[in-house]
Amino acid sequence: MRTDVEIKEDVLDELAWEPDIDETQIGVIVENGVVTLSGVVDSYSKKLAAEKAVKRVKGVRAIAEDVEVKYGISYKKTDKEVAKAVIKALEWNSAVPDEDIKVKVEDGWVILSGEVAWDYQKKAAKKTVGNLLGVKKVVNNITLKKSIKPFEVKDRIRKAFARMANVDAEDIEVVTSGHTVTLKGRVSSLQEREDAEAAAYMAPDVYDVVNELKIQYRAEYA
């Protein structure tokens, strides 16, 4: 099992490796595999990049994120300007049914609501908005529409795992109940855990994924 000191060193190195991140702006604390990030960055996309960098590190079991986004005076935008930019960006993204999404902006916080047919559309909306100037945080309250006909969800998910180089399908059990999928078993990193969940959400007629995958470094169960 990796020590907190080893994990922290790798987290700091991974942050330094990211070209969009100034690692000197971010504080890192590791306790029992839980990484706490703190500090201030000047864009929401940098905040997300820091989180993704940490998830790639082996031994990280969870992230407690307390990084604040603060724009300089010259970059400050009104909520009305941010809202217009959000709506325009959603319109330009072909993966997002913008007519089904409602936008609300409060002090730089963007709240998305509405209904879409697929989980990837919900995630695409958040990703599109998160890169815009003036956005401090994105709250994704978009829900999924109910469909009628169920498919062979379990089989499709397992085939998706088999196609993914970074997900070991042999250690993952897929349990289906109606439109809910439960993932059980073990993975080697937080990123692998999230990738497995994302793959499950991509299957037809899946509205909810219960992720019970345990993070366990491969050497621990070799």
UniProtKB/TrEMBL annotation:
Any one Pfam family match given in the protein's UniProt record, by short name: BON
Q: Which PROSITE patterns match?
A: BON
Q: Which residue ranges does the record assign to the BON domain?
A: 3-71, 78-146, 149-217
Q: Which PANTHER family has this protein been placed in?
A: BON DOMAIN-CONTAINING PROTEIN, OUTER MEMBRANE LIPOPROTEIN DOLP
Give yes or no: UniProt keyword Heme. Answer: no
The record's keywords, sorted A to Z, are: Signal
- Which InterPro entries does this one have? BON_dom, Lipoprotein_DolP, Transpt-assoc_nodulatn_dom_bac
Annotated protein name in UniProt: BON domain-containing protein
